[in-house]
């Protein structure tokens, strides 16, 4: 164990789990290889990074991340109704189906089918975890200063 605290620019190796408030685990490294990231490199959401600031090796914590610090609030303007005839006949629509769309810049944009009928398909382009409190559990394995070669 060392006494280096997690701060901007430190390299952190940790186990984590991300779960919904009801206990449904979305992602976890417990029982697998731990994750390593550099604080401030953009690989974690700000709310997750803020939660681990100041922790040291050996720390085990559980945090609840609000939508504002996590995946954002659900935005009704990100829900679009698209004419059913815009979808290929070979796509078997079902509620919860994730489809890939291209935005104006031709960037891949996932959307989730939330409703459909013979005329229209309602597609939600919000992040699936938008509007939800996230339970973030961490076990800090190591904290090191960034080394440059």
Keywords:
149 residues; mainly beta; Chitinase A, domain 3; Thrombin, subunit H; 2 domains; 5-stranded antiparallel beta sheet; 4-stranded antiparallel beta sheet; 1 helix; 41% strand; elongated
Descriptive notes:
This protein has one helix at 46-52, and strands at 10-20, 25-28, 35-38, 60-65, 79-83, 98-102, 108-116, 120-124, 134-145. It is mainly beta and 149 residues long. The protein folds into two domains: 10-71 and 131-145, Chitinase A, domain 3, CATH 3.10.50.40; 76-124, Thrombin, subunit H. Strands 1, 2, 3, 4 and 9 form a five-stranded antiparallel sheet that branches. It has a four-stranded antiparallel sheet with strand order 5-8-7-6, with no helix packed on it. The protein is elongated and about 60 Å long. The two termini are 24 Å apart.
CATH architecture of the largest domain: Roll
Structural class: mainly beta
Discrete helix count: 1
At the third CATH level, what is the topology name of the largest domain?
Answer: Chitinase A, domain 3
Summarize it.
With 149 residues, the chain is mainly beta. It has one helix at 46-52, and strands spanning 10-20, 25-28, 35-38, 60-65, 79-83, 98-102, 108-116, 120-124, 134-145.
Write the layout of secondary structure elements.
Elements: E1 10-20, E2 25-28, E3 35-38, H1 46-52, E4 60-65, E5 79-83, E6 98-102, E7 108-116, E8 120-124, E9 134-145
